[in-house]
Amino acid sequence: MKKPIYLFILLIGLFNAHISIAQKIFDTHIHGEKDVAYQLKKLKTAGVYKAAVSTSWQLQSTYQNTKDLTILQGLMLACPEGKVPYSGQYCFHDEKDFPDLAWVEQQIKGNKIDFIGEVLSQYYGISASDEALYPYYALAEKYGLPVGIHTGLAGPNHGSPNFKVGLGNPILFEDLLQKFPKLKVWIMHAGAPFIDDTIAIMSYYWNVYADISAISNPDIFPPNDFKYIMKRLIDAGLENRLMFGSDNGDIDKIIANVKDLDFLTEEQKDKIFHQNAEKFFTKSAN
Ligand SMILES: [Zn+2]
Fold first, then answer.
1. Which is higher by pLDDT, 126 or 21?
2. 278: cis peptide before it, omega within 30°?
3. How far is CA 118 from CA 1, 9, 28, 123, 186, in A?
4. Could you tell me the distance, in angstroms and rounded to a whole number, from the CA of residue 189 to the centre of ligand 1?
5. N or C: which end of the chain has fewer CB within 10 A?
6. Confidence of residue 283 (pLDDT cuts 50, 70, 90)
């Protein structure tokens, strides 16, 4: 007669166990999707409590904080032919490649922008240290906002005619890092395959972080290559500056891929899943 009660208690126990093992995730790299509600629900179910979003300015406003998910608002630039790569939406309503500076400052003051990114310099055909970007970096430095810059390679059909592989090398960050020494910068996609250069830049410039989006996605990047890259970054002593990012890939598979890195301690995984990003995105007034 007591069996149903035992079963009930067992189920409650399993439910609690499930909650307690859910990994806390700060996703530093997501973009807009058509079905925003579905996208955010999937992230939340996977354990994401905070996410940095960058998309067209029009779509950006549909991403808002909820009780259990904090959204950090990005500002994409420079937009090739005015457009967000892949989606083809215009970045801004005036269809320009770069947003008006005074407008950007106004949005920052109104707490509408939490970070500058994804900076699309490689898609646009310019260096991350191109002077066209300097006024935006200056604003980010002034208001203590992080700047995330795309590096590495790209997927197919991005629609950006001036894209160049060589412009994805994080060694190109050096001029901007010297020009804006207080700027908080992160290397999106960890600079892969230019890992030597990622390590060189991050070893010398302690304010530079990296997200592991795309390379951690087993659907688009071989898990063995990801493992090799992570081992190199960890061996280089960078465990306090690597941040999780899903880049709209299958979040469950990506989390599992990171958890599968058997050379990482649980503490190191926690740093990568959320602690490093918390530190990096903490607002600092300059
Ligand atoms: Zn990117």
1. 126
2. no
3. 60, 47, 11, 11, 10
4. 7
5. N
6. confident
How many CA atoms lie less than 13 Å away from 58 in the CB half-sphere? 13
CA of 241 to the centre of ligand 1 (A): 18
pLDDT at 4: 55
Q: Output the six-digit token pair for 97.
A: 């490649």
Distance in Å, CA 246 to ligand 1 centroid:
11
Residue 46 near residue 24, CB atoms below 8 Å: no
* CB contact set of 137 (below 8 Å; sequence gap of 6+): 116, 147, 176, 179, 180, 183
CA distance 182 to 221: 33
Residue 260 Cα to ligand 1 midpoint, Å, equals: 24
d(CA 265, CA 211): 19
Q: At what angle do helices 134-143 and 101-109 cross, to 10 degrees?
A: 20
**Helix axis angle, 36-46 relative to 251-259, nearest 10°?**
20
Q: How far is the CA of 15 from the centre of ligand 1 (A)?
A: 36
4-58: pLDDT as tens digits: 555 555 555 555 544 446 799 999 999 999 999 999 999 999 999 999 999 999 9
pLDDT for the residue 277: 98
Least confident of 17-21, 69-73, 85-89, 193-197: 17-21
pLDDT of residue 1: 46
Dist. CA 119 → ligand 1 center (Å)? 8
Ligand 1 centroid to Cα of residue 30, in Å, is: 9
Examine residue 210 and say whether the peptide bond preceding it is cis (omega within 30 degrees of 0).
no
Using the 8-state DSSP alphabet, how is residue 264 labeled?
Answer: S
- Quote the ligand 1 centre to 122 CA distance (angstroms): 9
Distance from the alpha carbon of residue 117 to the mean position of ligand 1, in angstroms? 9
**Average pLDDT, integer, range 109-116:** 98
